[in-house]
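TL;DR need structure tokens for one chain.
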Amino acid sequence: MPRYLSLVRIDESTGPAGGPSVELMQRMGELIEEMTKAGVLLDTAGLTPSAEAARMDWDGEKVSVTDGPFTESKEVVGGYALMQCKDRAEALEWTQRFLKIHGPEWQLACELREIAEG
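>> reply
TL;DR here they are.
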């Protein structure tokens, strides 16, 4: 069965103050439990803010390191889910459910990509 990576993209400047609510974390926990029991979810996690990140660039000769936050980035990857689904349609369905549990106070997007095998 194919594996899919859902990258959760957020604009850190527009998220609710204080981060996810207790209610959102409960809804997320319930969805994660459902996905785990269905055998779909392989791994998931949120990521620390971009202020705590480092970006490395290779210019063909040397690596440069830039500490966050990254002012030129409007959206950053805020989390991910690694899923194993029967097909793209199933992966899209689970990803849509994840987005919908956030409610109107969140503006986010998920980029869904199949993992290339072999």
